[in-house]
Design the sequence.
């Protein structure tokens, strides 16, 4: 059994009128309808979804959600889905943005790989007349101001979500117990926010954070880090991870070390962690509804293209997910 505690949207949703207006797009062939005779409907806009690594189940699910949405709204817009091979390959994502500009996409909905390094490429896209909407990971506000850009963000409160997952672990630990944090790519805003949320929960529970290292969102890197942490800290009671891929690596390291009673938390609620939640190897994760997150970003872009005022940043829901077993008590 799973338990869900929502952090609901703090911003007003886009007007239904705007979304209905978007629904009046063209019905030409895929790739955009032509400019026909007088009274013809305008061509459908091409929307590009640019994500991080599709090797991560979270982004694979995001892509699937976007494709389902477009299939049900094929008369409103055309869609192209892109993803990187590695989470850290910012240059590859820059190249994808440039390709989408060359394909004359009307909008790019992007989960930025880096909150600062992606700004110049997105500035070039905006200068070329492309609408940009960010999802999942917020761009750095100072870097945006320096570039003279205002780019809307649609996504979760990463700090609050991570705090929920870590608090579920902390509730099973006595004050003074040792915990470690495996964080994401440190130049990404969502990684920083999740680390802050994990630290918030540890501090509030009186736990001692003995180590904090970047697993760069990847299972293999987190596995090596967790193995080293377990060897260096024999009294380690929990490993708090900033995403589920890294949590999978930590769980594998705990099993390989023959350790029992070490709690683990994650973030994303990918399908691969569901068995771990149920048998207690993973204590908690957070569902930020990736399949819906892409759709929210696309709908935001379509509404703006249809003439709606640019919305304020929108906070999307996150939900705590725990398993029936409740996890082992150290």
Sequence:
């Amino acid at each position: 059994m799973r338990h869900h505690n929502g952090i609901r949207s703090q911003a007003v949703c886009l007007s239904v009128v705007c979304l209905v207006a978007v629904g009046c797009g063209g019905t030409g062939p895929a790739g955009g309808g032509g400019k026909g005779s007088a009274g013809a409907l305008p061509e459908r806009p091409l929307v590009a979804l640019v994500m991080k690594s599709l090797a991560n189940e979270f982004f694979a699910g995001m892509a699937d959600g976007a494709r389902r949405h477009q299939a049900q709204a094929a008369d409103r817009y055309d869609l192209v889905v892109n993803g990187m091979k590695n989470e850290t390959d910012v240059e590859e994502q820059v190249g994808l943005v440039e390709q989408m500009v060359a394909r004359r996409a009307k909008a790019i909905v992007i989960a930025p790989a880096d909150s600062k390094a992606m700004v110049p490429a997105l500035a070039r896209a905006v200068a070329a007349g492309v609408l940009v909407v960010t999802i999942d990971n917020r761009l750095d506000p100072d870097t945006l101001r320096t570039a003279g850009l205002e780019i809307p963000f649609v996504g979760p409160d990463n700090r609050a979500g991570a705090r929920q997952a870590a608090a579920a672990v902390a509730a099973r630990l006595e004050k003074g117990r040792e915990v470690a944090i495996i964080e994401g790519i440190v130049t990404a805003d969502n990684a920083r926010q999740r680390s802050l949320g994990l630290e918030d929960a540890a501090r509030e529970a009186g736990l001692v954070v003995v180590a904090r290292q970047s697993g760069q969102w990847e299972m293999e890197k987190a596995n090596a880090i967790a193995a080293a942490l377990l060897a260096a800290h024999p009294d380690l009671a929990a490993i708090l991870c900033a995403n589920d891929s890294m949590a999978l690596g930590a769980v594998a390291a705990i099993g390989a070390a023959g350790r029992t009673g070490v709690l683990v938390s994650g973030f994303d609620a990918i399908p691969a962690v569901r068995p771990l939640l149920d048998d207690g190897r993973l204590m908690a994760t957070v569902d930020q509804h990736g399949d819906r997150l892409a759709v929210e970003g696309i709908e935001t872009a379509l509404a703006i293209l249809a003439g709606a005022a640019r919305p304020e940043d929108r906070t999307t829901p996150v939900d705590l997910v725990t398993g029936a077993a409740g996890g082992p008590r150290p």
About this structure: Residues 274 and 323 are 8 Å apart (CA to CA). Residues 9-155+290-315 form a domain with the Rossmann fold fold (CATH 3.40.50.2300). Residues 57-72 form the longest helix (16 residues).
